[in-house]
Amino acid sequence: MLFFWVIAGVALLLLVLVVTVGDLFDGVLDALDFTGGYLSSTAVLSFLATFGIVGGLLLGTTDVSLLVASLGGVVAGAVVGAGAAVATRSLTDGPTAHQITSSDYVGQAATVTTSIPAVGLGQVSLVVAGQSTALAARADGPVPLGAGVTVVANLGPGVVQVATTSSLSL
Fold this sequence. Notes:
Layout: H1 2-21, H2 26-32, H3 41-61, H4 66-93, E1 109-114, E2 122-128, E3 131-139, E4 148-156, E5 159-164, H5 165-169
Parallel strand pairs: 3-5
Antiparallel strand pairs: 1-2, 1-4, 2-3, 4-5
Helix pairs in contact: 1-3, 3-4
């Protein structure tokens, strides 16, 4: 029975280290991985910890043999390890937020938040990929506060050329 508890204790200790400090063992496991990324240190250590806990509990609280306790630990460990593998893979390989660049502003609708004079800069506010952005803006003519505009060009860092909806349809 001590065998199971030692496996569980070591695996849990290493699992806490992996989660808090980083994947210490993934470099080694990556070299051995034939599962397409499902064999991570988190999945392996989750399997071992569950194997030890379930095996130790079965052996200590029931009259089952060492073989039955081991098989119970393997089955429970496989379920928990597979769940950990799927969860860590989906978090690792999931879609990430798009890095917004100035070219993403072109073609976007915006609202004038500081009126744009005939010569000079005003300010517009727009939402790109769910992120609100305020940019300095230039237009071919004066544009009043609150007017709807469309970004037609990027003029430099944080500065765009805008056109009102009426001037776009001409």
